[in-house]
Structure formats: C-alpha cells, structure tokens
Specification:
Elements (H helix, E strand, L loop, with lengths): L1 E4 L6 E3 H6 L1 H12 L2 H12 L10 H14 L2 H20 L10 H9 L22 H12 L8
Helix pairs in contact: 2-4, 3-5, 5-6
C-alpha cells in the first residue's frame, strides 16, 4: 500500500515495507500508543542518535525508544526530551554536536528537573547503615535485608 511521498526526500513510502520489518512494526506500534506531543518529542530525540551519513536502523531506533520510555513516566519524560533536543540542536548549530550513543544526557536533564531515576518495584533498597565487614558477613547482611518479608501479604 502506497502511503504517498515522504515530505522530506519525496520518495515513495510503502506501508507494506514498514510493517514487514519486525522492529519497524514494533516501533510504529510503540509510537502510535503515545500521545502526539510525546511521540513527536521521542522521534526528535531518536534523531539525535543518527549520524550525518547513515540512517538509524529500525532495531536501534526501537531500542532507543524503549530505553528512553523506561527512564520516567511519559508525562514527565516529554519535557525532558524537548529540552534535550533543544540543547543538542543548539550544539549542532555551533558545530559541537556528535550523535548521542547513550541516554546519559537525558538522565542529567531528568535529574535537573527533579525526576528520580529510581526504578519502580517492590524490592526495598539495602539498609544504609551497613558497616564495612568481611565478604562473608556482608553476604549475611544482604541476605537478611532481602529476606525481610515480615508483614508481607502473600
């Protein structure tokens, strides 16, 4: 099925070709589930990983999108994505930009916005009052902390 022409390069876009690639199909599904502004911000952010001479492969774009969405809830992530893209575009215009290879810059922006990078889950962090001890004893402390399941509703 012919979608029309690409607004950038004016080549023909074929929906059939897009969905035959598993990563391309998953990427389209992921983007379709996001609201318009978050999806647009995520696509702009993914473009920061592309070099001047090569396109971004669908599997890499999918991985980048999934990793970025895991960093924070979408409503908190969107302003950080926009700010990251704006700052990187400024660097690009100044000639100082290299394509991103990881999400460290985005993580810094999120941290600056006060958004915690703590993964959600039901495992509590280890106690901070653990004293330096021999390796065997530390294992005992860690095991005790992890196995503290009192008052757990099974």
């Amino acid at each position: 099925m012919n979608l029309g022409r690409c607004p950038v390069c004016h080549s023909r876009l074929h929906l059939d070709a897009l969905v035959q690639d598993d990563a391309g199909r998953e990427l389209l599904t992921l983007l379709a589930k996001l609201d318009r502004s978050t999806g647009a911000a995520l696509v702009s952010y993914m473009s920061l990983f592309r070099s001047k001479t090569r396109d971004l492969a669908n599997d890499r774009a999918l991985r980048i999108a999934q990793e970025a969405l895991e960093l924070a809830p979408a409503n908190a992530l969107m302003p950080a994505l926009v700010q990251t893209v704006e700052q990187m575009r400024t660097k690009q215009q100044a000639g100082e930009f290299k394509p991103l290879s990881n999400h460290k810059y985005l993580v810094k922006v999120l941290g600056g916005m006060g958004i915690s990078q703590q993964p959600a889950g039901d495992i509590e962090p280890l106690p901070t009052d653990m004293k330096p001890v021999a390796n065997g004893h530390r294992r005992t402390q860690v095991t005790a902390a992890l196995m503290n399941i009192q008052d757990t509703n099974w």
